[in-house]
Amino acid sequence: MAACLRFTRRVLKSFIDNKGHDTQCFPNLHIESAKPGEVIASLKIEPYNLNRVGVLHGGLIMSLTDTLGSLAVSTKGHWMTGVSTDIGTTFVRPAGEPGDILRARATLTAMGRSLAFTTIVFKNTRGELVAYGHHNKYISKVLAHEKNVTFSPDGERVLEGQDVD
Predict the structure, then answer these.
(1) C-alpha span between 159 and 140 (Å, rounded)
(2) In this predicted model, what pLDDT tens digit does every residue of 96-127 receive, in sequence order?
(3) Hey, CA dihedral for 43, 49, 51, 52, is it positive or negative?
(4) 3-156 maps to which CATH number?
(5) E strand or H helix at 39
(6) How many Å apart are CA 15 and CA 17, to the nearest integer?
(7) Rounded mean pLDDT of 28-52?
(8) How many other β-carbons are positioned within 10 Å of the β-carbon of residue 131?
């Protein structure tokens, strides 16, 4: 397994282990792949993910926009992923029903010394666009964290820092 994927899954695990919002909203979020600048994830839609009219709750997609934007930052080797400065999601169509798989691609579109910008695209089981969003983060204080690593350009190896697995 590539080092970037291992690291990004560890960051997600730390979100879940915190027993906070991510644990409650999507304990079954699965990172399928990760390379520097991109995360591909999936979430099986459960009955508890629906709103009162029976469709996937928009707040869940907003929360996924937040979490997946953070994970896109982590693909650059950042253990801490900063704080949100701007976030938004546009909804195109219902995501599906319980049992369907919601797929997402989060991309780090730019990152400087203080801000990171991400875009997230959500698709349903049929591959149709469900929603798209953006998540911008203030990252200045996370760039020197002791658990940060540096990946090879393809994300296969850790060049600097500790690869725990």
Answers:
(1) 22
(2) 889 999 999 999 999 999 999 999 999 999 99
(3) positive
(4) 3.10.129.10
(5) strand 38-44
(6) 6
(7) 95
(8) 24
